[in-house]
Amino acid sequence: MGLNSNSRYSCLLAFATACLVLAANLSQAEDAGNLYNTNFDINAGERYFERQCSRCHGFDAKGNDETGAPDLTGRLSRASTEVGIFNIIRGGVPGTAMLPVAADLPDAQIWQLVAFIGSLSTNPANIDLPGSASAGGRLFNGKAECNGCHMVGGQGGRLGPDLSRVGERRDPEELLSDMLSPHQDVDPRWWTLRVTGRDGVVREGLRMNEDSFSLRIMDADSNLWSYPKNQIDSFLRVEESTMPSYTQTLNDSEIDDLVAYLFSLRKEN
Ligand code: HEC
Ligand code: HEC
Fold first, then answer.
1. Measuring CA to CA, which residue among 151, 150, 56 is closest to residue 99?
2. Neighbours of 145 (CB within 10 A)
3. How far is the CA of 33 from the centre of ligand 1 (A)?
4. What average pLDDT score do residues 35-53 get?
5. pLDDT higher than threshold 60 for residue 140
6. What is the pLDDT of residues 212-223, one digit of tens each?
7. Residue whose CA lies nearest to ligand 1 atom number 30
8. Which of 29, 167, 168, 261 could hold 265 in an S-S bridge, CB 3.0 to 4.6 Å?
9. With a 6 A CB cut-off, is 148 part of the ligand 2 pocket?
């Protein structure tokens, strides 16, 4: 799977790394990343936001037509980086109702606001994806047979990573490329070994373990096979994913549905 191989979803997440690359305004704060982005900081930022910002931007931060304050839950128009947002909060937007914060407000508190705003755009409820998560869930467990290899919530196969919380670690663009180009950057955990034993029998499976003396594989039926290396004829390492590419077998709207479903998979709160 690869990063950024397809830009269909680029910058849907204002804070995705892909967008950080677009950093434009680095003049006022150094781009060392936000050090104030723990859950504690996000909560502190939210409390400050409710007191100082919500009267214009709304309690849900979705903006307000009367005050002209924009929606802050998606991609922002004036900033594509955390530093950019920091600078807007610190300096305001000249000539508009968006005034600077009090000059003596510590930077740390502004970073907490930045963290809070960032948490809004990675909240799946605030991201408009073209697909339907529920249709994607039906495909995943039905026609597309993803559950043959992947587990979600304790149900499914073991021939691929557990996807129960994949929406927390992959953004929509990455999920798309996972499905369209699975052979990019495959973690060695998911390589395949094709082993020919002394008896001439060839077995193929996921590389569960490989050291100087032995090999262990898991075949497509989830059977484990161990081989001392001095008892095999030869073996071949296939550094590709066993996951097929779905460019041919699923249409665009099915892929969109699956992306929406995968992105919704998170820890239940
Ligand atoms: C008096 C109303 C008002 C208050 C209070 C206010 N804002 Fe704003 N804010 C605006 C308006 C209006 C804009 C749009 C300015 C423009 O770009 O024309 C804006 C823009 C922004 C933007 C840029 C959005 C984008 O799409 O680029 C950010 C970020 C922001 N505000 C954050 C905050 C934060 C954080 C606070 C609280 C510390 C706050 N605002 C308080 C009115 C307000
Ligand atoms: C034959 C087994 C197999 C099938 C069927 C399969 N996958 Fe995979 N999948 C894998 C393996 C192995 C990996 C890990 C290697 C890689 O990155 O491709 C993987 C990786 C992924 C990842 C990246 C996970 C991560 O933690 O980064 C996603 C997302 C994914 N698959 C989604 C799907 C979806 C959606 C389907 C159905 C349309 C599907 N897979 C069908 C085997 C499979």
1. 56
2. 12
3. 21
4. 93
5. yes
6. 999 999 998 889
7. 89
8. 167
9. yes
